[in-house]
Every structure is written in structure tokens, then in C-alpha cells.
């Protein structure tokens, strides 16, 4: 007998293949965090030694964190808001599920800040193409776009691209886009890493990245930063990954897919380190992170390399791909929840989500404003969402139900230790991340 067709989440269709799903999730995971934060942290917090806590946390969060978010999405057949309703419906306080609005606001919040920053990336790409970026100091070029209402044009283009991808009846377009953009990203960054290898003086960069400074493992901050980085990079926010899980077929092995997503995300982070830091050192520049690395240091490097303009185009184009695939995941969470809550069409929901993001974001285009806004979202809202997700799944819904879901599609049942690790290691760690983020003013 033919298997009963599964119910589709909000009528948005399902991912057509396991690899389509994994690549869409890799698309979400690989973003600015991999490119402008990981390379610096790797070198700064102990080189190869940093990889020990980092990989440990990636494995832990991939194994029990991502799996849980995919699992609850698939079980509920709906995204953020609906999934929390499912978790809380038999609880003493079913109204607790309403707190699901917080992670959803987190998704909209990161999307809003991200869209502005990726707008700057697009502008730098065009500046590289036209040569404008090389006509003046990178600081001067960058500051043209970072005042009040300084990048409306680029901001609108980015949101339009996101809308173009999302404005359909089905998520199949997200899958198709990810299946093309992610491999292209890996290919181009590999090419850059190889080019950088041949720069004179690049060796210092490899030393910075990989010579293990074991003593850093004795510092608390190393572990805190590895933990925060691993968490943010896997997009564990109690929101975006839930909605992708909602579109996954029951015959797929979620735990395996989560680990595959984590592996590709880690490869992307390492590749970024190899493409960026050796070049930074080859030109005797102090390593740094964030916008100053991306918009000041990197253009200065390309300025000094033969065919630098071509490489700059390749670089900013790749960052654009990584950014857009993360952006569409955050919007997807908002869209699906709007559909679920208000029974509106996907296209209407897509338009509302993107428009809302623009209306908020247009007042944040100033670099200082967007910085403060992103701090608020990534230090308070998103980590709270992650804690809420973890607690809702493992404590409120309960271990038995989520394990049943995760066992669907597996040949071997989950090992006994899974429940212990999830409940007594992972959930407390999410709470710790929330607290440490506040103490350190941001760790992810
Ligand atoms: N994982 C992305 C990065 O490392 O840049 C950030 C991110 C994307 C966080 C999507 C949350 C999200 F929903």
C-alpha cells in the first residue's frame, strides 16, 4: 500500500530531498558569523587549541540542539508559533506557548539587521565591480553608507532579492536556491583560500590560526567564546531551524542531517579562516573581526593584490550568497508563523514580513544604531529564544515524544545517553549561554 502522504506545513510543500534540506540548513548556518567572527576567534583564543572546545560544542549542539529544533518542527508540521503550541498544549499552563513570539521576534530582528549589513556587502560588490571602492580609502567608502538612511537603495535590493525567493507557494524554491548558492560559496572561498596561500608572508597567518596555544584552554573566556560561537553559527534560536524541520519528510534521519549540517558549517568557518587571516598577516595588518574586518581591512588587502578587483568581486559575492541564504531562513520562520496564525496566503505573509523588516530597518541604517539593535537581539532575544526552545522541547513536551519523532527515519534507535545529554547537559548550557552573553555583552 502506498504510504499516506504527510500533511504539509501551512501548505508550503516539503523539501524534495534530504540534501536539499541539509543545504538549506547549511545556508542558514553559514553566515556572517563564520566569515567575520570565527577566523578572528580561532586565532585569538588559542589557535588549534580553540578547536577543541569549539568542536566539542559544535558536536553537542548539533547532536541534541539542532536535532531538537528540526524534530519539533517535523512533529508539529508547523514552524515557530505552532510548534510551541504543540509543546505546551498538554502542559499545566498551555498559555506558555505564547512566549514563542519571543524567538519569532528574534528571527525578524536578526533578519532586519542582517538585511542592512548584507546591503553594505552588495554595495561593496558593486564598488569592486565599478572600481569606486578602490578610488578612495576604504574607511571613506564605507562611511558613505553608514549614516542615517545611508543605504536605503542597497537595503531595498537585498530585501527584494529575499522576497523574490520567498514569494512563491512552496519552499521548493528555497531548496533550489540553496542547492546552487551553497556549493558556489564553497567553491569560491576555496579558490580564494588557494590564492591567499601564495601570498608572501601568508605563513604568519597560518601560525596565528593553527599553532596551538594550549594555555588558552585554561582561560574561561576561551570556553565561553567557543560556546557562544558554536551556538550562533548553527542558528539555534528556537525559531528558524524549527520551520525548516517542519518541511522535512518523516523518512529522513534528523540526527544524521543535523550532524551533516554541523560538519558543513564548520568546514565553511575553517575555509573562511584560510581565505582571510593569511592575507591579513601577509600585509602586516592587525587581525580583527566584524565590520572593520569586512569593510575596511579586506578592501585594503585587495587594493594591494594583482587583480585585486576581481578577487574583491569574488569575495563580496560569496559573502552575499552566505548572507542571503541565512536571511531567507529567518524570514521563512516569520512567514510560516504569520500564515499559521492568521490564515493568510504565503505570498501575503512574505510581503508583510519583508515590508515590516524594512519599516523597522530603515531607521537603523546608521552603523551605531544597527550595532546597538543587533546587540539587543543577539544578546537578549535570540538566546532567550534558544533557551525557551530547549526547555519547551525537552521538558514541557517531554523526552519520550521528541525521541519518538527523532527515531522516525532512523534504522537504529537513539542511544540511551541521548536523553541524559539533552536534559542535563544541553538545556543547562543554553541557560548558561544566555547568562554569559549578558555578562560578556555578547558571545555569539
Ligand atoms: N548562523 C548564522 C551565522 O553564523 O552568521 C547566523 C544566523 C542565521 C542566526 C540565521 C540565526 C538565524 F536564524
Based on CA atoms alone, the radius of gyration comes out at: 21 Å
Helix content: over 70%
Bound molecules: 4-fluoro-L-phenylalanine
Number of strands: 0
Work out the helix count.
19
Explain the layout of strands and helices.
Layout: H1 18-29, H2 32-44, H3 48-76, H4 80-88, H5 101-130, H6 132-135, H7 138-143, H8 152-166, H9 172-197, H10 203-210, H11 220-233, H12 240-246, H13 254-282, H14 290-303, H15 308-342, H16 346-361, H17 367-397, H18 399-407, H19 417-440
Helix pairs in contact: 1-9, 1-13, 1-15, 2-10, 2-11, 2-13, 3-4, 3-11, 3-12, 3-13, 3-17, 3-19, 4-17, 5-8, 5-15, 5-16, 5-17, 8-15, 8-16, 9-13, 9-15, 10-13, 12-15, 14-15, 15-16, 17-18, 17-19
This protein binds 4-fluoro-L-phenylalanine.
Report what the structure shows:
The protein has 19 helices and no strands. It is an all-alpha fold and 444 residues long. The longest helix is centred in the C-terminal third of the chain and has 35 residues, at 308-342. The model has no long low-confidence stretch (mean pLDDT 96). 4-fluoro-L-phenylalanine binds next to α1, α2, α5, α11 and α15.
Amino acid at each position: 500500500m502506498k504510504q499516506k502522504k504527510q500533511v504539509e506545513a501551512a501548505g508550503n510543500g516539503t523539501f524534495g530531498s534530504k540534501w536539499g534540506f541539509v543545504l538549506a540548513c547549511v545556508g542558514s548556518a553559514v553566515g556572517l558569523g563564520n566569515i567575520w567572527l570565527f577566523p578572528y576567534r580561532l586565532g585569538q583564543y588559542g589557535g588549534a587549541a580553540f578547536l577543541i572546545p569549539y568542536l566539542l560544542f559544535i558536536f553537542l549542539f548539533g547532536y541534541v540542539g539542532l536535532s531538537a529544533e528540526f524534530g519539533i518542527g517535523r512533529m508539529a508540521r508547523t514552524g515557530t508559533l505552532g510548534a510551541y503550541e504543540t509543546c505546551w498544549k498538554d502542559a499545566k499552563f498551555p498559555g506558555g506557548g505564547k512566549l514563542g513570539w519571543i524567538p519569532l521576534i528574534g528571527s525578524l530582528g536578526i533578519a532586519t539587521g542582517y538585511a542592512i549589513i548584507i546591503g553594505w556587502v552588495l554595495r561593496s560588490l558593486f564598488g569592486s565591480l565599478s572600481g569606486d571602492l578602490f578610488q578612495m580609502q576604504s574607511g571613506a567608502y564605507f562611511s558613505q553608507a553608514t549614516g542615517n538612511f545611508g543605504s536605503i537603495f542597497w537595503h531595498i535590493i537585498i530585501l527584494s532579492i529575499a522576497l523574490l525567493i520567498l514569494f512563491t507557494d512552496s519552499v521548493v524554491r528555497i531548496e533550489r536556491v540553496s542547492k546552487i548558492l551553497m556549493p558556489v560559496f564553497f567553491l569560491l572561498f576555496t579558490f580564494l583560500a588557494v590564492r591567499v596561500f601564495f601570498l608572501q608572508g601568508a605563513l604568519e597567518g597560518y601560525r596565528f590560526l593553527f599553532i596551538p596555544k594550549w594555555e588558552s584552554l585554561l582561560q574561561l573566556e576561551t570556553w565561553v567564546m567557543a560556546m557562544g560561537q558554536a551556538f550562533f553559527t548553527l542558528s539555534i534560536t528556537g525559531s528558524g531551524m524549527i520551520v525548516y524541520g517542519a518541511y522535512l519528510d518523516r523518512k529522513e534521519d534528523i540526527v544524521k542531517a543535523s550532524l551533516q549540517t554541523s560538519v558543513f558549517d564548520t568546514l565553511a568557518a575553517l575555509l573562511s579562516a584560510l581565505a582571510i587571516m593569511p592575507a591579513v598577516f601577509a600585509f602586516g595588518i592587525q587581525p580583527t573581526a566584524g565590520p572593520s574586518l569586512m569593510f575596511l581591512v579586506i578592501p585594503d588587502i585587495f587594493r594591494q593584490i594583482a587583480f585585486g578587483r576581481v578577487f574583491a568581486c569574488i569575495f563580496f559575492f560569496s559573502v552575499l550568497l552566505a548572507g542571503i541564504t541565512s536571511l531567507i531562513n529567518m524570514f521563512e520562520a516569520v512567514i510560516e508563523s504569520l500564515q499559521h496564525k492568521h490564515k493568510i496566503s504565503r505570498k501575503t505573509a512574505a510581503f508583510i514580513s519583508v515590508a515590516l523588516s524594512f519599516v523597522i530597518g530603515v531607521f537603523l541604517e546608521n552603523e551605531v544604531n544597527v550595532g546597538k539593535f543587533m546587540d539587543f537581539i543577539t544578546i537578549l532575544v535570540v538566546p532567550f529564544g534558544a533557551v525557551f526552545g530547549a526547555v519547551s522541547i525537552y521538558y514541557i513536551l517531554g523526552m519520550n515524544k521528541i525521541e519518538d519523532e527523532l527515531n522516525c527515519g532512523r534504522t537504529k534507535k537513539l542511544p540511551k545517553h541521548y536523553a541524559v545529554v539533552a536534559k542535563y547537559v544541553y538545556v543547562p548550557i543554553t541557560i548558561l549561554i544566555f547568562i554569559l552573553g549578558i555578562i560578556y555583552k555578547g558571545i555569539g
